[in-house]
Design goal:
2 domains, four-stranded parallel β-sheet
Length: 404
Amino acid sequence: MRVLFRRTLPLACALLAAAVPAAAVHAQDIVLGASVQLTGPDANTGRYYKDAYQLAIDKINASGGVKFGGASHKLVLKLYDNQSDINLSVRQYTQLVTQDKVNLLLGPFASAFVIADSAIAEKYKVPMVQGGGASDQIYARKFKYIFGTLPAASNYYGSTIELLKQVQPKPQTVALLHADDAFDMSVAKGTRDLLQKAGLKLVMDERYHINSTDFSSLLSQVKSANPDVVLVAGLETDILNFVRQSKSLNVSPKMYSMTVGVPSADFRKALGKDSEYAFGMTAWLPSAENKDKWFGDGEQFAQAWKTKFGYDPDYHAGSGVADVEALTLAMEAAGSAEPQKVRDALAKVKFDSEYGMVAFHENGQIFDIPQIVIQIQNDKVVPIFSGKGLLAKPVYPVPAWNAR
């Protein structure tokens, strides 16, 4: 198979940022195209996807590449920096398909980006596998060319709410705060239903603007409502601002739990001792039980990541690597890199990976991966609850800010 690259004038100078040089592509190479946040407010998370895609590609190539048609094909990454700009991201995915003629697509970070960019995959019938968006809205459109490796946003707090049924004293009231983007609104919608079924009273349900820096008014309402538990869905920068201002106003429920940030070493570094006792969730932790064709297992993958990049992986890294592996195994099953054949093979793919078992529902979303409830204890991420049972003792109720 021959893949040709033509040098074209970019739509904007940024379109060429972080692109893999055309000279790196050879006659039998298979080109995977992506646009991720390498600069701008989402860059801290976007780097996970850049690193995950490249690490997976390097590992697969070192093992002989993608094998079909009696030949081994090397993978090549064609990557653009969308600068955390959705409109630019859409233009870049259009260029990847129509001008760069990439074979297949990997996704960006964040549900809002995936919603917009997957429309390009659907329009041109080029499959995209992504581990950066979890909003239920991604899959509600019944698109045929989008596949995702993050669990449903509507069930992100499912394991946490199961934990709330077991802790003592049992909480009675909950405040739910969420940003106004696609992912966080999906989280909120699903969480309301889960709380009602669990018999927990929702005493506050408030939406705030994404990338907010001032939570003082919202926190005053929380203090007045005095809930046992505060659940927050937002970007990591939102979460950091929220925690800092919670401390300054001494808003001290029995538990804080956040959808993002807590699994990351950056979260603990940014907050220092104020990250202690924070609850969160993750779809992935390094595990020797997760066997992987290329990395050995989840723990070996995590070590390979740390050795190469100098920082620890989190679930963004795990899902990003699984995206590349899914495309690779789908091509081998299809015996081709032709988009329609790969799409049909993705719909049937089922394999063990460092991330866990990967298989997709008819709508393209991964079969359920239960969130693991985690808590920061002594500056470490401690797995607390698997969704089925306790893994470690939680610190609950959490000490008030002025009692630490």
